[in-house]
Each structure stands twice: as C-alpha cells, then as structure tokens.
Amino acid sequence: MDGYSGTSLRIDLTSGQVKRESIPDEDLVTYIGGKGLGTKTLYKELESGIDPLSPKNKLILTVGPFTATIIPTVSRHGLFFKSPLTGVYGESYSGGFFAPEVKKAGYEMIIIEGKAPKPTYISITDDLVELKDAQHFWGLDSHETEDGVKKEVGDKAVRVSAIGPGGEKLVRFACISNDYGRQAGRGGAGAVMGSKNLKALAVRGTKKTKVHDEEKLRSYVTELLQKLPKELPLRNVGTPVMVDLENKLGTFPTHYWHKGFFKDHTAINAEAMKKIVVRNKACFNCPIACGKLVSVTDGKYAGTEVEGPEYETIYAFGGLCEIADIKAIAKANDLCDRLGIDTMETGNMIALAMEACEVGKMKMDPKIKFGDTDAAIDMIYKIGKCEGPAGTLLSQGVRKAAALLDMPEIAIHVKGQSPAGYDARGLKGMGLGYAVGPAGASHLRSNIYAPESRGMIDRFATEGKPAFLKNLEDRMAILDSAICCHFGRDLFFTWNDLPKLFEFITGRPTTETELHEKANAIITNARRFGTREGISRKDDMLPRRFMEEPLPEGGSQGSVVKKEELDKMLDEYYALRGWTAEGKPPPD
Amino acid sequence: MDGYSGTSLRIDLTSGQVKRESIPDEDLVTYIGGKGLGTKTLYKELESGIDPLSPKNKLILTVGPFTATIIPTVSRHGLFFKSPLTGVYGESYSGGFFAPEVKKAGYEMIIIEGKAPKPTYISITDDLVELKDAQHFWGLDSHETEDGVKKEVGDKAVRVSAIGPGGEKLVRFACISNDYGRQAGRGGAGAVMGSKNLKALAVRGTKKTKVHDEEKLRSYVTELLQKLPKELPLRNVGTPVMVDLENKLGTFPTHYWHKGFFKDHTAINAEAMKKIVVRNKACFNCPIACGKLVSVTDGKYAGTEVEGPEYETIYAFGGLCEIADIKAIAKANDLCDRLGIDTMETGNMIALAMEACEVGKMKMDPKIKFGDTDAAIDMIYKIGKCEGPAGTLLSQGVRKAAALLDMPEIAIHVKGQSPAGYDARGLKGMGLGYAVGPAGASHLRSNIYAPESRGMIDRFATEGKPAFLKNLEDRMAILDSAICCHFGRDLFFTWNDLPKLFEFITGRPTTETELHEKANAIITNARRFGTREGISRKDDMLPRRFMEEPLPEGGSQGSVVKKEELDKMLDEYYALRGWTAEGKPPPD
C-alpha cells in the first residue's frame, strides 16, 4: 500500500533483545491496526492457559493508521494482553500525547515479552531502543516516575507511560498512566507491566506519518471541523454531565448496585464539579477537550490537583460508595492515579467491602461503611500498596475477592470485571453489551449506553437491540483499530466518514460493508482468544442481581433484565456475528 | 384531568349545523390528541368503502396537548381523512401559526362533514362559528384566498388555511395551505376540502391553554433551551442540507428513480440555495427556523418569492426531473403552492410523464423530456388546473395515471403515494418504513432516513431494523399526537423528555413504557382503518424497481431491497406490533 505500511518492534525483556519486524501488508489490510492488529497478534502469539502474571504473557501496544495525522481525536494507543483481572482477553486504551510519539518513532506495534531480571524502563527515540535500569524509580508513584524518567531521558518532548506501586504490587486492576492524567485503566495492564519488572516506557519520535492523499484528507477534515457544533457538552462540563442524566433514569449505580438513584447527586454532579474545575485539558489535536483539571483549595482535601474525576470515577466512589462530596472523589481519583490503579475497579472493590461489612461477610474493626469518606480514602492506599489483609484481599479483583469472602452471588461483574456506571436493568442493550464483552463488563465496546440514556432508542426494549449493538460494536472496533477516540464517533467517524478517511490515508478504497466485515473479523478474534481460554455462552451472563432483583426506586423502578430476555438477545447476537448458539466462533 | 380536557367542534357543511362536543377524558388519556385522537375518530366515524371525494368523507383537524404552550416547535396541526390519492388512511400535518389559534379558540379537534351547497368558508373566533359565502374566492390561488379571507374577517391576527385551484379541481394530491408558505401537503386533503365546497378555514382564538404545572414546565423548557446547540444545520441552510448528503450516499432519487446520483447536484444544493435565500422563516415559537424565504431577482424566474424550496421539493423537481437550476425549482415550488398541489407528488408525476414519453407510453407533441424546465413549469399549471389530457391524467396521482398509461410496473409508489427523496435501495430501514406506511410511502412516520443517512446505523443492514423502525415510529406517533415538530425530536422530545412534558401539562404521570403502548394503539388504529379498506401484507410492498433493479452507480451502486429481506423485516415488524403474519391487527 502506498500510504500505510508498518513496522513492529519486539522487545524481549528476559534476553534484552530488540527486533524490528515488518508487519505483513495483508494484516494491515485485514485488521487495520490498533485493536485489530493487537488482538490478532495476541491470539496468534500467546500460549493458552498461561498465568497472566507470568513472563509468558505479552504486552502488545499498538497505534493505528489514523495516529499522528491531522484527523482530530486520534491520540489514543491500545494495549492488548491476557488480563490478570479476568484471566481472559484484556484490552485497554489511553489518550493524551503518547500515541503520536510511538507512531512518529516509526512503529505501529510494540510487543513486550518475557521478564526483565531487575526493574527496567524502555527508552525509544526513533530507531534507538534502550533498556535502562529503573531500580531508582521502583516504588515511586506514577507521576513521580513520569517526572524522573523524563528528566533522565533529558528530552522535554519525550512522553512516558508508567506504572505506580499498584502495578509493582500486581494489583489485578493496576493501570498504566501517561501524561499525568491519562490511564489505560481496565483489565490490569499495569500488573502485566509490573510482573515483567517494567516500570515505564519513554518514547520520542521525529518521523512524519505517511498519508496517501494529504490534500483530500486536509479538505475533508476541514469540512468535518466546520460542522463541529460550537457547544459541546463534553467540552463544557466533561463526562460528569452524565451524573444527573443517569440518576434521572434510575440507572446511576448506588450503594453497591442496590439502587439506581443517589439522593445526594447534586453534591457530585456537573454543577458541583464546575466549582473545582480550573481549566480544560485536551489530548493531542483534540477540539473537544473533555478533560477537566480540577484543584481543591479548601477543606480536608485542599491541595488536590488532578485531571478528572471522570463520570466513571464519580459513579464508582460517589454512587457505589455513597460519597456525597466531589472534593473527596477528586482526592480518591488523584490517589488511584498516583498509585496506578483503576478508579472504576477500586471504587467497586471498596463498595463491595462496605457491602461485605454490612452483611457480615467481612470482619473489620472498625467496619467500613457506605458514605464513610475517610475509610474509603484509607482503603485506596491499602489496595494500591496491597497492605494488610483487607488491601491484599481487595487487590485481587471482584471475582476472586467475592469468592474468598464467600459472597460470589453478591458480586457484580461479568467475567471478573465490574461494569461501568450504567445499570443494565434500565439500559437493556447495555446489558447485552456487558454480557458479551470479551474483556468482561465494559461500556466502551459499543457505547450503547449513550443512545439508550439519551432516549434515542427505547432503553427497556430488547427487540432489535442485538443488531443495534452489533452495529455500534462494529463501528467502535473500527475506531479502536484506527485508533480514534469514541467521543469523536458522531462528529468525525460515522459510517459515512470512515471509508473516506481510510481511503485518503491508505490509498485503498473501502466501503462501509467491507469495514463491517473487518470489524466482525476483529471482534471474532477477541472471541477466539476467549474461547481458547474456556469462554462460552455460560460466561456471557449478567450478575444475578441484574436479572432477579428489580431496582427499588427511581426512573427504572421494578425493572430487571429477565433471563429469557438475555437468552433471546444472545441467540440473535451470536447469529449476527456468525457464531454458534453456544457462542463459539467459526474456526480461524 | 386537571391540565387537559377537550372540546371538539363538529361542522356539518350540508346542513350548516355546528355542534360543540366534549371529548371523553379517556380518549385523551389513551390517544393523547393530534394523530391519536384524529385517527381514532376517523376510524370510528367513517363508513368503509366510501368515495374519498364524496360528502361521506370527513376532514378531521386536530391540535394536541402541547399546542400553544411554551414548549418550542409545537406549532403543528394534523388533518385526518380518507385519502383521495390512496383510497386508504390519509394524514397530513402543517406548521406555521394556524394550530395555536385553533387551540386558543378552545378546540382540540374540528370535524368537518358533508358538503356545502355552494363555495363556503368557515370563520371561527373562539365560540363564534360561522359558515360564510366563498363564491367570490373560488378560483383564486391559495395566497390570494388567504389575503381575501383575512381582509374580509377583518382581524389581523386571524390565521387562514385554504385551498387553491388544485383542491377545487379535485387534484388527487391537492394540499391545504396556511401562512402563505406552509402546507398540509400529502395525501390530498385539499381535494377533500374541494369536494366539500370548502375554500378556507379562518381561525382566531383568545383563550389561554391550560397547563397543569406551569412552573415546572417553564423550568424544564428553559433547561432544554439552554442545551440547544448554537449551530443548527437546519437553521443555517434548512432541509436542502440533505441534497449533498443523499447524493453522496447514492440515494438521491434521479431521473425518475433510475439513479441515486445527480451529477449536477451543485446547481441545486444548499450552497446554490444560499445564493437566493433572503432570510429565515420560523413557525410559532420555534428556535430552529428551518424555513427559508427565497427571492429570485434575475433571469427567467425573476420576481419569484417563496418559502422554500425544501429538500423534498428539490429532489422531486431537481433530481427526478433533472432540473439543474435552483431558481427554476423555486419557481416550481411557488407555482405548486399557489395552485395548492403537493410539490412532492407533482414532481413525481412530471418525472413519470418524462419517463412515459421516453419509453413511448405517452404521446405528447412536443415530448416532455428530462431536464426540460419550461415544459415542467408548464405542466405544473396543467396539473394544478386539470387542463388538457396530460394535466387531467397526471392529476389522478401516480397509481391511477400509471395504470391508464399501461405502465404500472414502472410507477414508483406504495399504496398509491410516491416516496420521499430517499431511495430505499441504499436506506433499507427507510424501505421498510415506506412499505408499512398506513398512508403510503412516507418518510415522516419514522424519519429513519436520518440515522441511516448520517451513518449512525448501517444503512444497508436489515437485521434489527424492524425494532429500530418501530421505536422511531412510536416516538413520531407520540410527537404527531402532542403535536410537536419532528425537527425538535432530538432536541426537546427524546424518550427522556416526553414523559415529563406530558406530566407537567396534563398532571398525569406517565412513563416511556406507557407512551410506547399508546403509540402502538395509535398506529394500530391507522392500520385498522386500512384493513377495513382491504389493506393487508400484499400492500406493504415496495415498488418492483426497488427490489429488482440495482442502483447503477454512486454510493449505493448494486444495491436493492431483496424480496426476502423485505419479507423478513415485515415478519418481525408485524410481530413487534402485535399483528398477524398477514399484517392484520387484533380486533378493536
């Protein structure tokens, strides 16, 4: 292809060997890049049945054909690995400024294998790849590590992805941070890094991204930008705009998933947030700027400065733990970021502990109670550093912790990952999305919560949802392979735009139909990875509470996702994907 | 109910008798108003098998609970009748300033029956209802009639709905005009008026609309308006914004439905339109202002001033007839408006004549050819006044004219009504929407062309489309009953907003689920009307060309709606609506 070809960088941490490999053109045509390429490589290269925290796991980092072009909102990189949290397929994405450096350094993919004999960081400047000693960084939090590595590399333009103590301690939901406020949060990629003695990656690139037809791309992007509405809710208040909406719908998860309505929502909503926002924070070449830098200047948490909290962090600490204080949530956010642990999973674990104490499944003195901010903040430290019995237990993730506490029926997860802040009982398409998620309950593989929550489609209906979900999943799989930010999905990346953008960049004409086929192949590869690890229809299941305990009050009162509703949706979904009634994909 | 009760005005033109009737509260609860009430009344009161142009037909005009409240974009009134064009259920809506006057005069519904012994107009001022001689208006065009009636009534604030020569001459697709630029265009409501010797309705009201909780409504509406994006494409350029989009997709109907791509689109698109737009024209209390007043100041059509052309007019004359001149289309638009005939159906009929001449089915000397502007303009006069053999023939509507020309297989219609400017071959959900339309091929009962065209859902897919269509149809049925403008659908009338707006106005709490049930009941009543006239699955069929002749070029090249695709969608759609596999609704 004229405009798009690719090099992969393979780094074996055990031997210290570094290799550059050409990615076969047909892989780039079939799998695009990003998720497509990462998933295909992971499936092909990983042995089945391995321990995710063993040297046999790999951490695959990809960018895509759109990265570091003039297209807006394409600042994301993806990570693919066997997940220490779920034991199956793991994927996670982060924005900021890291992806363009990887691309400009000349790589579509970085495959990290083995385990370094001692704490190490990787420094990449274009063709120069070095493994460097990181013993003096070990134990530092993620921000300190970013600072330290940048200083040591000595190039102000270098971008750093790093783990904090959470990753070092192998917390099953440790994240990887970059640009101080951006995280590849889900699935425990940080623990995979930690298990490899890898503290950080520092990357700097100076090459130009190849684009087949710069002229056409520029004029198309100009056109798209001209259509951009002047008022964007994500720019105005960021993702916390969802708090009031979900709460109104009765789908704002509260009191560890017992309720869908938080009476104190005004203490944690967008309005509350506005009072502590200092300024917007945008990723590379992003006109949306959903990120919000907040600063707490008074009270107990004075001095807290953090990018966030995002809606998902607010739901996990605010709703689930009933912490009615946006400043405390900002503090919790900052702590998680510095410790390098996923805010969503951390909030879920603390709320689970609150519930376990409430029902007597967990003995702590004093008990950790819903709404107890100090105890929650303290528990974040314990989880991030695996301290004490409670911290160690909760760092194991929801499924394992619930099993150890003898409360598996109470734990809310799919395949071991906690859901996002959208209760499936009032958003039934989201329920199907959670159930079939290859990496567990994720809202990001389809974003179907958005049209359901905004009243564009009937949120309680199940008819037609499998096809609607599949269509969105397909589009998001393409976005995750290109790689584009999901927040640009209706601005720059509709089915009308995508074929054109691909053609201008790669020189290869494509169609919506062809992109659907590619998306299905990509999603099916992720499924194949799961199937090889034992995943089948039985695992595409919602937590018992979603199916049997109706929401007690609010806008979704009385609703559940009935088993028969889920079964029917699964039947249809599998058929649409070309999988068997047991959810098994066709042979490779 | 506290906030909403209703009076119906019954006017028997044969006897001159006028009655005021209370609408049963349970009808308003079950059927809301607008379409719900109109359809129910039409179904209940009309004898089956009658001639639509006989005195036994009724013309039912309704407004709804939202009319003349502070909610934006609720300026519409609906008309319900047996359609002279299709012979089955007819419905048509118009915006402007007429509906609020009907509401303020104290009426939810006006039922017009019988036939006046001589040309008559109805004058309503609150409780005062008078039948007045209209012999001196007979023969005048719709604008002149509006002028004349206003002057005669002598109240500057009176609003007038009137027919032009087309309605008088019983053109099967004659429309009813109000406010000079707004038409209830589809289905031939104007011919029903003409058949009743009714030239116009003049209405003036001074009462205040009852609202249950004005405080809450005001604050909710304020909130909605604050969320209104500053940039609205419909405000900027109006509906012609769709020309380039549909043309890109290859779904812009061209050369009487042979093609989906018009090479000269830049001569008739939004940019071309901008050159003749003088200013925006909004309906009552509408912040969108999609209407565009245009003025042609040079060339052959200098002096033309008209509200429009809308996208549908541009497609019908520009694409179908291949008239590559926005000024000529403005002229055609103005002529149709003054003559009181539907621009969409008129454009279709002229393009059909062009095709008939091309294939030798119609003998004219000289032939009327695609792209021949003068001949097209001339033909509009002939159709509107039923002049000569061609005018008389084409005024019969597409199904009858095609049968008389011995080309039924070539005519593009569903149940006798021509489709809108969205070729179903590249928008398959729209195909299903056309097929099941109770009044024939209409884009307005679901607006599914919009998410399909904008790339939100896969436009070539058929999986999941029945449920998606049903959901949109349900929402539009509620909007048509409230009555709200469809262009407010994603701004003010999502499923989240509707229950609240109804509660604030009527005082009766409702839910999304309940609204779906009401919508289904309303849509099923329209179906029952059709069933009683002989409509069944066989009529829910697309034109042969949509199913067998692939589009020859452009963005939908090679695509058709296969018979088996349509059949599968119909099966699913009927099941979702609770109808039999033959499309028969359950007994009343």
DSSP strand content of chain A: 5-15%
CATH class of the largest domain in chain A: Alpha Beta
Strand line-up across the major sheet of chain A: 2-1-6-3-4-5
* Count of individual beta strands of chain A: 15
CATH superfamily of the largest domain in chain A: Aldehyde ferredoxin oxidoreductase, N-terminal domain
- Report how far the terminal alpha carbons of chain A are from each other: 25 Å
Largest interface: A-B, 36 and 37 residues
How would you describe the overall organization of this protein?
The structure is a homodimer of 588-residue chains. In chain A, strand 4 and strand 5 form a beta hairpin. Chain A is α+β, with helices and mostly antiparallel strands. Chain A has three domains: 7-204, Aldehyde ferredoxin oxidoreductase, N-terminal domain (Aldehyde Ferredoxin Oxidoreductase,  A, domain 1, 4-Layer Sandwich); 238-404, Aldehyde Ferredoxin Oxidoreductase Protein, subunit A, domain 2; 424-490 and 511-577, Orthogonal Bundle (Aldehyde Ferredoxin Oxidoreductase Protein, subunit A, domain 3). Chain A has helices at 25-31, 34-45, 98-104, 142-153, 165-168, 189-195, 214-227, 233-236, 241-249, 270-274, 311-319, 326-339, 343-358, 373-384, 388-394, 398-404, 428-436, 449-453, 465-482, 497-506, 512-532, 544-548, 563-577; strands spanning 6-12, 17-23, 59-62, 77-82, 89-94, 109-113, 120-125, 128-133, 159-162, 176-178, 182-184, 198-204, 277-281, 291-295, 305-307. Chain A is 39% helix and 13% strand. The mean pLDDT of chain A is 96. The two termini of chain A are 25 Å apart. Chain A has a six-stranded mixed β-sheet with strand order 2-1-6-3-4-5. Chain A is globular, with a radius of gyration of 22 Å. In chain A, helix 17 crosses helix 19. The first copy, chain A, is built from 23 helices and 15 strands. The interface between A and B is large, with 36 and 37 residues.
